[in-house]
Amino acid sequence: QLQLMESGGGLVRPGGSLRLSCAASGSSLDYYKIGWFRQAPGKEREAISCIRISDGTTYYADSVKGRFTISRDNVKKTVLLQMNSLKPEDTAVYSCVGDDSDLTVRAMCVHGPVDFASWGQGTQVTVSS
To answer: pLDDT value at position 116?
Structure first.
């Protein structure tokens, strides 16, 4: 059973950067897609970026394209989300999720992971001056 744990959240000023980490355990990531989603208070969950571990195929939401970068470290079984040029509207709880279904990377982000996907507990990101 895949288990995921996020880290790296915190408080940052507008224009600043943070790097989130999603560490996996309990299962090989070879057949997984890992996605980053976020949810702000009173708002629906929003997909940020997804990556297919096997070949590094990525998808980004328009709201973060050009500012955020998703990457994988297969040796460390970790997926990173580098967030630059942060804005107050990026404030949310960020969670990573692992999906080994037949969904494409794009479909996982656009339509959400399958119901049996494995979620981390989330990490808070606050962008404020």
So the answer is: 84
